[in-house]
Amino acid sequence: MIRIWPRPDLRRAFAEWAVAQRPKVPTVSPSEFGVPDELVPAIPELLLQGARLDGQPYATPDPAPAPELPADPPTESAPDSGQEEQVLPAPTAEPAPPAAKQEDQPRAAPPVSRGRGARKAREGR
User: Fold this and answer.
1) Which of 26, 33, 56, 93 has the most crowded CB, counting CB atoms within 10 A?
2) What is the pLDDT of residue 28?
3) What is the pTM of this model?
4) What pLDDT, on the 0 to 100 scale, is given for residue 60?
């Protein structure tokens, strides 16, 4: 039996996986599961990220190495015609289109002062 402590934010998802197994995977403590050795390979990789297995941090298996590609394939060279090869300039990024001009919209009137000056003006002082 392997004792697994899932990452706290994955504990609920791990528990859902554990109870879906037949027989159910038992808990050893509120945050620890006792997974039978033969079920460990069946645990989804996502549920093991950040987990501890028998007290050791889970290490993600190395992905399969990418196949090595051969060096640049040989290119056919044109017969030497005595002319220099024409070099084209690198393409440049197209300028961004001008921003859409917003139509002139009427501006809202400035807020009316409600202070003492406004009251005095209304009262004619």
Assistant:
1) 33
2) 93
3) 0.49
4) 79
DSSP assignment of 38-66 equals GGGGGS-HHHHTT-EETTEE--PPPPPPP
Query: CB 47: neighbour CB atoms within 10 A?
Result: 20
Q: What are phi and psi of 56, to 5 degrees?
A: -105, 140
Angle 44-19-23 (CA atoms, 0-180°, nearest 5)? Answer: 100
Residue type, 49: Q
The residues that bridge with 29 in the sheet, in sequence order, are 32
Spatial distance between the Cα atoms of 29 and 53, rounded to a whole number of angstroms? 14
Q: Is 39 exposed, middle or buried (0-12, 13-18, 19+ CB in 10 A)?
A: middle
What distance in Å separates the CA atoms of residue 32 and residue 114, rounded to the nearest whole number? 66
- Where the chain has pLDDT below 50, the residues are none
What's residue 100's pLDDT?
Answer: 55
As a whole number of Å, the CA-based R_g of the chain is 36
Write the burial class of residue 46 (CB in 10 Å: 0-12 exposed, 13-18 middle, 19+ buried).
Answer: exposed
